[in-house]
Amino acid sequence: MNNPADPVANAATAAANTVSAAERIDARAERVKQATSEVVDRTKEVVDRAADKVENTLHNATDKAAHGATRAAEKAEEAKLRGKEAYGEAVETANDWLDTAREYVREKPVQSIALALAAGWLAGRILRN
Q1: Cα separations in angstroms, 108 against 51, 80, 96, 114
Q2: For 20-40, what is the mean pLDDT?
Q3: Residue 4 φ then ψ, to 5°
Q4: What single-letter DSSP state applies at residue 70?
Q5: Radius of gyration of the chain measured on its C-alpha atoms
Q6: Model pTM?
Q7: Mean per-residue pLDDT for 94-122?
Q8: SS3 string of 75-116?
Q9: Which pLDDT score is estimated for 22?
Q10: 63 exposure class (CB count in 10 Å sphere: 0-12, 13-18, 19+)
């Protein structure tokens, strides 16, 4: 019934069960480690692809903004040049009119004084009313 070999057999069985349980735990831990590693690798790939996409989108947006700024600067420069040309033409026209008026006064001083008096009298009449 109680055999002296039973405690030894029980200890051997317990030791075998302990080793077997440790091996099962190690095997499961290794599977969890591999699964975790695979998930981390897949997540890293997804994050890398997303980062690349964001980077490309930012580069494209920056390129478009730079192109728009360049075009705006070019248009502003063109408008500035057109403004300078118009100013130059207006000054030239005004100088031509002044030269014409000076020549008229030199050629016909009496008539110029009569015109000035008539213009002054007319301006006075208009402003008085």
Answers
A1: 84, 42, 18, 10
A2: 86
A3: -60, -20
A4: H
A5: 50
A6: 0.45
A7: 93
A8: HHHHHHHHHHHHHHHHHHHHHHHHHHHHHHHHHCHHHHHHHH
A9: 74
A10: exposed
